[in-house]
Write a structure and sequence with these properties.
Blueprint (H helix, E strand, L loop, with lengths): L1 E3 L3 E3 L33 H5 L24 E5 L3 H11 L4 E5 L2 H11 L3 E5 L7 H9 L9 E5 L4 H9 L4 E4 L4 H24 L12 H16 L8 H8 L3 H12 L3 H19 L4 H7 L5 H12 L3 H11 L1
Parallel strand pairs: 3-4, 3-5, 5-6, 6-7
Antiparallel strand pairs: 1-2
Helix pairs in contact: 3-4, 10-13
Length: about 325
């Protein structure tokens, strides 16, 4: 080791060539495939650069977004400018990128831009990435946002602390950029898959979309309020907001982020689930079910039912009766 104050430190590791100095137990007979290196042997540009692995990451594999929808966004929270630039270059191909240089700014940006995903370093000036994650997961506005933590700390206790604070994943440095991109892709793809299932399968439950207790409580309360007012002709979104004590804009953003639905569409979804339950468990006519679930007519209920679940109410009832 050579070190000069204010200049830097150089560590030199010298390894003997050949294997004559190794015992038979120390030698590995396993053949490594060409081009495949263990993580600890990856070159620097493979760890923090942007290598070309077209078979691993493809923009076509990301969840589809319609032209009218906002592009996926990611908030990068990192105090190291070089690493922040590398991450920005990698993610800007597929995401709208927002940046913050510390935890406090990360919290402010998360509340302001509502990103689809947050990637944060753990060790930063001011509050750590772990503390930032805890605070975001305790706020209703940001509790649903997936968070991935990056850290140079490799001990198990640190990894457990990172996951206990509510992070979706905990990646240790040095890391391969494609591994990070793939993890981000999988997190968002899983969320989109759950949202699609919720909108197309009557048996799915809203709480399946919740990743924490705050979101689960919000969905539970919302479903309860809607179900209690199905026969109330005066029920409205404003009444829902008053009952749950959340402003309309704030509630709309939250429900959209969790379920992918507008407030009006969420109400229709809950009503349709009630329709499916009554079709399956009672002998009520379609007209009676439409009235009990607050639809203005059976034809309007039937149209929405088929649009979401792919079958008419009568077809759904026959299929359930046949399988029972």
């Amino acid at each position: 080791m050579k070190s000069e104050l204010g200049v830097g430190t150089t560590f030199t590791v010298t390894l003997r060539l050949g294997d004559e100095h190794l015992t038979p137990e120390q030698k590995s007979t396993e053949v490594q495939p060409a081009g495949i290196l263990p993580v600890q042997e990856l070159k620097r540009d493979e760890i923090v650069g942007i290598p070309d692995f077209p078979d691993l990451i493809s923009i076509n594999k990301l969840p589809d977004t319609k032209e009218t929808e906002m592009p996926l966004s990611v908030l990068l929270v990192e105090d190291n400018e070089d690493l922040l630039q590398v991450l920005e270059e990698a993610f800007s191909i597929q995401y709208k990128v927002y940046k913050a240089c510390d935890g406090e700014e990360g919290i402010r940006m998360a509340e302001e831009v509502q990103p689809d995903l947050i990637i944060s370093d753990v060790m930063m000036p001011g509050i750590s990435g772990t503390v930032m994650c805890q605070r975001l997961k305790r706020k209703l506005e940001t509790s649903h946002i997936p968070i991935i933590l990056l850290t140079a700390r490799v001990d198990l206790e640190s990894a457990l602390d990172g996951l206990k604070c509510g992070a979706n994943d905990y990646i240790m440095k040095p890391f391969n950029i494609n591994l990070l991109l793939l993890k981000c892709h999988n997190i968002i793809a899983d969320l989109k898959s759950y949202q699609t299932r919720f909108c197309t399968e009557a048996a799915s439950q809203p709480v399946e979309l919740a990743t924490n207790r705050l979101d689960q409580q919000l969905l539970d309360d919302s479903v309860r309020i809607i179900e209690e007012n199905m026969e109330n002709q005066d029920f409205s979104i404003d009444m829902w907001c008053r009952e749950i004590a959340i402003g309309r804009t704030r509630l709309g953003m939250k429900i959209k982020a969790i379920t992918g639905l507008t407030l009006n569409d969420f109400i229709i979804q809950i009503k349709l689930r009630k329709c499916a339950y009554l079709l399956e468990t009672t002998d009520l006519t379609i007209a009676e079910i439409s009235w009990k679930t607050g639809f203005s007519s059976s034809s309007y209920m039937g149209k929405n039912f088929k649009d979401y679940f792919g079958v008419t109410p009568l077809q759904y009832k026959k299929a359930k009766n046949a399988s029972s």
